[in-house]
Design goal:
Layout lengths: L1 E5 L2 E7 L8 E6 L2 E5 L5 H4 L13 H6 L19 E3 L5 H4 L11 E4 H14 L7 H4 E4 L4 E4 L2 E7 L8 E6 L4 E4 L16 H9 L6 E5 L11 H14 L3 E6 L4 H13 L3 E5 H13 L4 H4 L8 E4 L8 H12 L3 E3 L10 E4 L5 H7 L4 E6 L12 H11 L3 E3 L8 H11 L3 E5 L4 H10 L2
Parallel strand pairs: 4-5, 5-6, 6-7, 11-12, 12-20, 13-17, 13-18, 14-15, 14-17, 15-16, 18-19
Antiparallel strand pairs: 1-2, 2-3, 3-4, 8-9, 9-10, 10-11
Amino acid sequence: MNKWINNKTYVKIHSGYNEIGGNIIEVGHKDTKIVFDLGLSFTRYKKFYEWPLRTPRGIDELIELNVVPKVPGLFNQNEEDINAIFITHAHRDHSELIQYLQKDIPIYMGETSKIIINTRKEVYGNKYEIDIDTVIRPLRTGYRVDIGNIEVEAIHVDHSIPGAYAYIIQTPDTTLLYTGDYRLHGGKICEKSLTLDLIERAKQYDNIDLFITEGTRFIDSTPDREIDVLNKLNQIMSQFNGLILLEYSYLDIDRYESILEASMNWNREIIFDYRHFIFLYNLYKKDPGLHDKIGFDRNRDLIHVYVKNIKRLRKNVKETLSEIDKEGFNVINELDNIIDKNVILEGFDLHLQDIYKKRPEYCIAIHSTSEPYDEEIEISYEKIINWLKMLGAPSYRIHSSGHIHPIDLMKVYREIKPKDVLVIHSEHPDQIKRLLQKNK
């Protein structure tokens, strides 16, 4: 546990220090205690569990195995209270442990994150000990919340998932900035990064006593932007006629836009896995801020939704697919008619055995996620590559990270001029801290 104390304010890093993901940060002043993020550490999780063979049997088991740290007042109803929880974004390494909460602690997060968590419950059947619709209190940028004698202000940032926020935390004697996961290089070429708003807001405070930042990218960092991803997708699609197998982080709306734009440029239809498409559909229907970005109105004819066996699905998923079909999207249950056509099959990693059985004449694969930093993908890339070899499919990695690059992190640090810095969500926290402090 990493601990930082200034006068009467303390910061405890219960999880997420010297590792990537699993963030759980406690900030306290006198009788007020707030937790920021409730993330699952996939590194520790994978030491014991492998779906579907072994899955957790409750929070007590996870704590006993040291997969999840024991945080007083968080999971046990009989312990001292945590006053509130703030979630930066809905990636599982920042939000997964919400399902194990056993008492109604107020949970603050962006409206978009709430939609994603509810959709995860719908699609994957996540079970919650609490009524999440009752305890989740949605935020927008600029919202301020008073919890006891601590004020928390939410400021949006750019990340590889919509609805990501940083938090400026003020206690009576200390000002803290917790970034969550963020970047400066996202978006299309003419878009301003949302993270610039955080920098400008932080500069308005007289002093940031502690800057708590992620430092995911350190080794082999690449400065590709989303516009670079789009250009590379266009290049490949212009030169290859045939089936393209594609996997991407399905909650990355910027990547979805790039994929869709490239497919429109080269008149390619896209077949989405139904699970991934339901997330897009719910965001489109329930978040007005993403309506134009997802843009179904201009590209509906290009989109198909693949579900292999609809009879086995849960009732609520069937109902959503029926609604999707009525909205004019083509829901299909066979791959026979597309396997040798000039189309894109999204989420191919979920259907490799079916694709192999169909024996496409030729195809290529595009990986548009990164390893090992992807917060949602748990499938072994080695196994995917083995299947692609059997298909005779060359593969390409085309990606723009959701995490800030070291050069950009130095820029943020110089702009906000904090008194101290704590690097989390990183395997190299001490090296990054030295780098920042030597390049003020």
